[in-house]
Design goal:
The chain contains five helices and five strands. The protein has 155 residues and is α+β, with helices and mostly antiparallel strands.
């Protein structure tokens, strides 16, 4: 009695039949001010929904950012993504654009978009996605406070 219908070398059965996908992450941070409000609402409506985050004089956060790229390990380099390149992308497209800025006033992405943590994470993902190989997945985790964070993985 044979366990296998065909006779294959033992190495055939030991080969992985799937591509190993690994996630590589890079942490970063930036400090920004913002105000949560809708221009088309009254001050009372904005206060009711956004509370102290609707302060007309703005408020700030020390944002912590984790950007992760998931994909197959390149057999030549051993990398999913070069972490130095990922670091440079974050510095160029995110830190330089957001750090020590008022998101409502200084960052064009938020001219007509309320800079909630959710929207900031989506904007960050959209800024980075064109620079990440299409075969790889991208995830953005943004901490607004040590206990409040959002995750965006794309559509």
């Amino acid at each position: 009695l044979s366990l296998f219908r065909k006779s294959y070398p033992l190495t055939y059965y030991l080969k992985p039949t799937f591509v190993m996908r690994v996630t590589v992450s890079r942490k970063a941070h930036f400090n920004s001010a913002h105000r949560l409000y809708r221009k088309d609402w009254t001050m009372e409506q904005n206060d009711a929904v956004f509370g102290k985050c609707n302060n007309p004089n703005f408020h700030g956060h020390n944002y912590e950012l984790i950007v992760s790229v998931t994909g197959a390990i390149n057999q030549e380099t051993g990398f999913v993504v070069d972490v130095k390149i990922l670091s440079d992308l974050i510095k160029t497209h995110i830190e330089h654009a957001f750090d020590h800025k008022n998101l409502n006033l200084d960052v064009p992405d938020f001219k007509d978009l309320n800079p909630t943590a959710e929207n900031i994470a989506v904007v960050i993902w959209n800024k980075l996605r064109p620079h990440i190989e299409a075969k790889n997945d991208l995830e953005v985790v943004l901490y607004e406070t040590p206990r409040n964070f959002v995750t965006y993985k794309g559509n």
